[in-house]
Amino acid sequence: MTINIEHSRLYKSEGVKLLYNNSLPGILITFIASTTLAFTFIDNNNFYAKMTWWLFMTLVLAIRLIDTHMWIKSDAKSKDRKDWVVRFSIGCLITAMLWSVYAVTFYPQFTVEELSSTNVILAAMAGGATSILSASFLLSALYNIIILMPMSVLLMLQPEQYKINLGGLGICFTLIMIISSARSANYIKEAILLRYRNKKLVSSMEETIRERTQEVYVISNIDSLTGLYNRTAFLSAVEGIEREFEQNHIAGFSIFFIDLDGFKNINDTLGHNVGDKVLIALSTRLKSFIGDVNFMCRWGGDEFILLVKESSHAITSELAENIIASLSLPIRLDDQTIALNATIGISVCPEHDFSITRLIQLADIAMYSQKGKYPERFAFYNLELEHNLRRKMTLNEALKGALERDEFRLVYQPIVDATGQIVSFEALMRWRYQEQEISPVEFIPLMEQSGRIVQVGSWVLEEACKTLAKMHKTNAEICMCVNISLIQFYDKGFVNNVNRVIERYAIPGHLLHLEVTESLFQSEQMMINEKVSQLQQCGVKFSVDDFGTGYSSLSVIQNMNIDYIKIDRSFIQHIEQKGLSIVQAMMNMSNSLNFSVIAEGVETEKQRQLLEKCGIPYMQGYYFSRPLERANAFAYLSTAIAEESSSEFA
């Protein structure tokens, strides 16, 4: 029942639209037909009557035209009112009546031509009404009956046979038009219903599309894990912030580049499932800092970006501290507690730049420069940070082909005993790039980070042993110290490579000293001990460089049977103050743990004398010699040998 009522309303609503939309052609045709008929057969006898009829017809058509215009101009809601159908139907039926009036009134004066013309016009009007008025079967049927039946009945009553035939034909034509009207009306109803169903289907499809579009939006704009914006959506969402600043609606804004410290270790040790839970927990904490005006996204991995409509350093610093404090709180997952820290880089508009993409880059630079520092875990961007980063990137790129371009070389710094005689040389790497000498402090860490230290370290070992082999011919007891990176120890071929070089240049193993830093003792002890032991079996000696500044585990040193300890230059520089007691303590330990001590960084005669009093057996530093080029090292060694020979001869 509800569906039938709905369909009935639909038919009426759509029917009114069809009637009025088709009315203008009908009115125009009626006007042309009535004008043609009235003025074609007008004469003195019927002039006033036909003019009166034509004026009435024109007036009705004008009124219908005005009514149609009013319907067109009315709003969509008003077009469905019932009175529109009544008004339209009255206008149509009055028009039909006027046609019948013409036929009946002027019939007695008809000539054969006018009779024929009138019948043709009435039949044409009836036929046209069948399609034009098809939206309403009742109106179409009444229109046909009114316009055709009076003339047909009148003709049927005439004595002439052809008129009787014409009358019968008119009645039959009326019935046919009524049947056609019924079929047209049914067809229109079916078309309206089909259109309605299609409209509902389209509406349903549009709703489905809207839902799917929303789903696609979420998939493409929202990070599925954290529920924050992803990178693309964030950049799109904050475009308006730049415009607000340009239009002076806000004084400025800040970009926070947030990176989690130690998150990779969680993924590596506890698995990615736990890592995802940690990200979800920390993202929930970060959401509390978004507020109504800030924007945040997961930039990627364990990196987040927060845009704050604030440019004050004091306010942004306080916010950064609060974020770090929140992220540093322990996370409880099932039966384990996880704690992380965070590092934040901050860039400010308009202080640093105006473009959001550029400010993100600057905040990233500030974060990277601050990474791993404590207690300050956030930093504001400054030009020096970017300069340093660009220099690192440039050098890192240049390092890729430095070995092939022969940009590396070795210099050699002598190590002397207590009598001043040379006992060994330390091979030190130098890099000349674009007519500049790059400090090892800069390029060694870059090579370690990229892993190139393995290839370059192998080259250093080869070059140092080649030099040692030549020096060995001059002085059979001269040694060569080569610095080894922890990363080289992790290389599977490291031990074999050392043995290969020793055999290739026929060097006694005890003349090769490998220098390591204290960071070696923080690594996998079983693997390190095994490799050190294998090399010591070949006679290779080990020394610990920069001793006292790092891990300094004496028990580990004892277990590894370290041969030499190099006292860091920082203690030698302050030997006249507290450094002397530290040097004496190291000498005492060396006697107990059976290793020798080398003091590096000796620069003055006073330092040499104090070290000699402490019993330091070996020294190295600018006081004795700066690092020497290969040829100069050979010359220095030859001179020292000559002086030693002269002294013995004397």
3D architecture notes:
- This protein has 650 residues and is an alpha/beta fold.
- The protein folds into three domains: 2-200; 231-381, Alpha-Beta Plaits (2-Layer Sandwich), CATH 3.30.70; 411-644, TIM Barrel (Alpha-Beta Barrel), CATH 3.20.20.
- 62% of the residues lie in helices and 14% in strands.
- It has 23 helices and 16 strands.
- The protein has helices at 2-40, 47-73, 83-106, 112-132, 137-156, 161-221, 231-237, 239-246, 263-270, 272-287, 313-328, 356-370, 383-398, 440-450, 453-474, 486-490, 494-504, 525-537, 554-560, 569-573, 575-593, 605-614, 630-649, and strands at residues 253-261, 295-300, 303-308, 331-333, 336-338, 341-349, 378-380, 408-417, 422-433, 436-438, 479-483, 512-516, 541-547, 564-567, 596-600, 618-620.
- Strands 8-9-11-12-13-14-15-16 form an eight-stranded mixed beta barrel, surrounded by four helices. It has a five-stranded mixed β-sheet with strand order 2-3-1-6-7, sandwiched between helices. It has a two-stranded antiparallel ribbon with strand order 4-5.
- The chain is rod-shaped, with a radius of gyration of 52 Å.
